[in-house]
Amino acid sequence: VNTESMLRESIQNGYFELYYQPVFAMGTQRIVGAEALVRLRHPERGLLAPGEFIDVAEDTGLIVQLGEWVLEEGLRQLSFWHRDYDSSIYLSINVSSKQLQDNRFVRTLEMMLSRYRIKPGFLILEITETMLMHNTDHTLEVMNRLKRLGCLLSIDDFGTGYSSLSYLQKFPLDILKIDRSFVTDIDTNSTHNALVSAIITMSKALNLRVICEGVETEQQLETLQNMRCQMGQGYYFSKPIPADQFTLGYLCGA
Ligand code: G
Ligand code: G
Ligand code: NA
Ligand code: MN
């Protein structure tokens, strides 16, 4: 079956869901936020991860519509969490370059933030390193507008692209997410260990907060704590889970 027509059908019928992966402070191991990760629950095909449809969504431009749904649903959920449970958690949302290129993006976002009464400082927009390498002038302009709005910006999958370190100064970034490929073998690969340590030190000098992705073991957690990494997410803490499970597991008196 054609993926594009399946995506159109799924947008039309509301087959998408958001899963949430908690983000933790490495020191206290308390929850500080969540990353929203989209899923497609198709009546015939079952539960699909983004790997099976995001590329097609981007190539066809459908990511703009899908991305608007993700933003709206994520902010709706966050407003509920803030109101009923914990007004200090933030939400990370992945944004694709097609969305940033869309002229209405900033205005749409502004409208949604006010509709759900979310302080922009509780929304983190995740932009991949690869995206910063393309279309840099326009991307920079949109990012500056998002900053003025008060949103936080993070560079996702850091270390996997080929961006020069000067990009970290050029773009108005708040958070740097170290890609999980470096965290996976941090205790066995001395080069990756040294790189993660150096990135954490450099980030402090540049006033960037750091999130390590893909923390899976207690040993990795300990290594990262010793490097004074501020935040982490990964299967050691939790995999991405549905909203109600997140509420029960992490916000209900936990
Ligand atoms: O949840 P999972 O590990 O399968 O996600 C795989 C990738 O899909 C993530 O790394 C992320 O970059 C991308 N992704 C997940 N949700 C979204 C989304 O809402 N929008 C965009 N643009 N990408 C997403
Ligand atoms: O591209 P992005 O960084 O947004 O990707 C997040 C993806 O990484 C999600 O699809 C999520 O399922 C996956 N993920 C999150 N934590 C872990 C982990 O500890 N190990 C592995 N292998 N994948 C993870
Ligand atoms: Na991400
Ligand atoms: Mn990432």
TrEMBL record:
An example Gene Ontology biological process: signal transduction
- Name all EAL domain ranges: 1-254
- Key word Aminoacyl-tRNA synthetase present: no
In its keyword annotation, does this UniProt entry include Transmembrane helix? yes
Keyword annotations from UniProtKB, A to Z? Membrane, Transmembrane, Transmembrane helix
Determine the domain of life of the protein's source.
Bacteria
Q: Cellular component per GO? A: membrane
What is the official name of this protein in its record? Diguanylate cyclase
Organism of origin is Marinobacterium lacunae
